[in-house]
Amino acid sequence: MLKQILNKIPRKSPKGDSQDAAGSDPGDNSNGFQCTIGGGTFSSRFNVVKRVSSAVFPASMMTGLEAVEPFMSFKDVSNSQKQNLFVSKLNFCCKVYDFSEPDKNYTEINSKNETLIELVEFVSSGSAKFNEPAIAAMCKMCAINLFRVFPPKYRSNSSGGEAEDEEPIFDPAWSHLQIVYDLLLRFISYTSLDAKVAKKYVDHSFILRMLDLFDSEDPRERDCLKTILHRIYGKFMVHRSFIRKAVSNIIYRFVFETERHNGIAELLEIFGSVISGFALPLKEEHRMFLLRALIPLHKPKSVGVYHQQLTYCVMQFIEKDPKLASEVIKGLLKYWPLTNSQKELMFLSELEEVLDMTSLVEFQKIMVPLFRRIGCCLNSSHYQVAERAHLLWNNEHVLQLVTQNRQVILPLVFSSLEQNIQNHWNQAVLNLTRNLKRILTEMDEELVSACQRKLEEDSFLSNVAAEKRRATWERLENATAVQPLCSNVFLSVKPATCSITC
After folding, report:
1. What is the CA radius of gyration of the chain?
2. CB-count exposure of residue 339 (10 Å: 0-12, 13-18, 19+)
3. Could you say which DSSP state residue 177 is in?
């Protein structure tokens, strides 16, 4: 009798037994489920767990860590096991497939995509609380799937980044990468994510490799990276200075070395909002970013790709500190294009925005070189450049600044207006020039008359000097036309000797 009772007591399984030999849960009549992937069959039990390999996390993090089989659903495990299942699914998604041949690993890729979607839904539910192993596994999975080396650029143009008239190149793995980016974005944006713990894994190396991805040819990837990097900048205050320096280095390399990068526009778009959050007074580091990074970005030929974002960043700095307006205008004059009319149009548009926020004191610092350049633009043979330069005078603030400094500015531009009236080929430019001269005459008729007389005097003196040069050249030509009578006679010249008495 006692023997029969003892036989009914369940025996403890040996430590070396495999998990499948442990039997099913006494409260569950089912024998488990099977999931077939790529021809292989995975058998598991609902409450069966296995130790995670020490290769995933450091030994210090392994204590008490257990992960559920990755093919289970979050609905089928208890709340205490959801974190372990989350880590297990992340580890399963660490395998990378070649998407250039999608039919080769179709079943495995599809299974991985379904797992990633499950992870996105779990993070989106807001019920998760991520411990350190989960944070480490997330960063590891994202690094393995996202961080990669791009093939060499083979575009024919020598300018950096995508030209405005070129079709973008799309990554064949985007349908897969998009889910990983979505998961990373939701993870970084998670309200209860402990930034103090996460910063150990979203570290400088992680950020640098993420910044390298901004050179991707796929604009969809760069757009996702832009949002994620902005969230990282906002969440991890300890990394802000490092991110600014890293982006500055990318800009330096682009401007002064390669002039090739696809993500300058996206990086500037991030910094547009970053600059608006700078505290006043501006730090010297921030001023140097404007002077050494943003202003030199006007130099490359491909400035048209990112000029809108660049102008916004520059204007944000001037809004913060109006005294920087003169420095910005000096930078524009330094990199002013001489042979690229489309680029010159962009500079004129940006110049008007800057002048609209320039005070009288800052304007007086740069008005002489500025209006010498504007005078050249007024007289440009490219009619669009000439038109855009004339339209500057329609800005009320610019016209007010000119009126207050007309004694200096009008003599600088008057000759260009007269040359247009006499010689410009485009009728629209001719009409704008006449209208501008009328405005200046109404502003100060005596000054315009004085400029007219001075121009006539200069023209007269120039004609006299030209006549003198013509007469001199004519005498020289007549002198050389006379043939020498003794052309074959050579004179022997004895070197002169002189005695020097010391």
Report:
1. 37
2. exposed
3. H
502 vs 301, higher pLDDT: 301
What's the CA gap between 269 and 243, in Å, rounded? Answer: 14
User: Which tokens go with 154?
Assistant: 């083979």
- Going by their DSSP bridges, the two strands 40-44 and 49-51 should be labelled as unpaired
Phi and psi (nearest 5°) for 395?
-75, 125
pTM reported for the whole predicted model: 0.78
Helix or strand run (H / E) with residue 240: helix 240-253
Dmax (CA) for the chain in angstroms is 153
The token duo for 35 is 């999931």
What is the DSSP code (8-state) at residue 17?
A: S
Give the pLDDT confidence score for residue 460 in this predicted structure: 86
Q: Residue 209 is encoded by which pair of tokens?
A: 């490799």
**Which element (helix H / strand E) includes 40?**
strand 40-44
Mean pLDDT of 187-214: 93
Rounded-to-integer distance, Cα 299 and Cα 332, Å: 9
Other CB atoms within a 10 A radius of the CB of residue 167 amount to 7
Rounded Cα distance, 167 and 164, in Å: 8
Residue 93: closest CA among 106, 109, 82: 109
pLDDT digits (tens, 9 = 90+) for 314-344: 999 999 999 999 999 999 999 999 999 999 9
Q: What is the mean pLDDT of the chain?
A: 82
Q: How far is CA 40 from CA 24, 37, 43, 46, 51, in A?
A: 22, 5, 10, 19, 22
User: Which pLDDT tens digit goes with each residue over 39-94?
Assistant: 333 333 333 333 333 333 444 444 445 546 777 777 878 777 888 888 899 999 99
Q: How far apart are CA 246 and CA 251, in angstroms?
A: 9
